[in-house]
């Protein structure tokens, strides 16, 4: 099949309303090293769904997408040698969801990020970092009110985060027991 025809077929598939469901299974059930092209296409389709087709999804579909990505991301901590690209791409998709849903549809998004730092420290910090990058990006897709809400949420919790990160990074478990 010629290259242009392949591209056209993939774009046609990506625009189908239910394509994201198959791509979600591929992106969360497979290792990036098994078939990189398929994995990247699947995550690209999910990003397209989140950024361009979100309003067309049912609340059940939105919940399925959110929960599957969160669960898959949280499980990465239990998987040895997860590729940084794999981890960061899933975090990026979750951050895009958070940007769309926090605070109205998912008021606990930031709290979930914080809780993740308690069980999977590196994943939680990575997700907070990527979410912050999304907020400060100059894409113009966030209202000033949303950015102010995020900023006030962050400022209200910054002292706790700083304290927790410091303890996690620089204190031994024996020292933490005495705190």
TrEMBL record:
Importin N-terminal domain segment(s): 6-75
Family affiliation: Belongs to the exportin family.
A Pfam family: IBN_N
Subcellular location field: Cytoplasm; Nucleus
Keyword Transport: yes
Parts forming coiled coils: none
Keyword set, alphabetical order: Cytoplasm, Nucleus, Protein transport, Transport
GO MF, any single term: small GTPase binding
GO cellular component: cytoplasm; nucleus
InterPro entries registered for this protein in UniProt: ARM-like, ARM-type_fold, Importin-beta_N, XPO6
A biological process term (GO) from this entry: mushroom body development
Organism listed in the record: Drosophila sechellia
Main location class: cytoplasm
Record's protein name: GM12987
KW Metal-binding (keyword) present: no
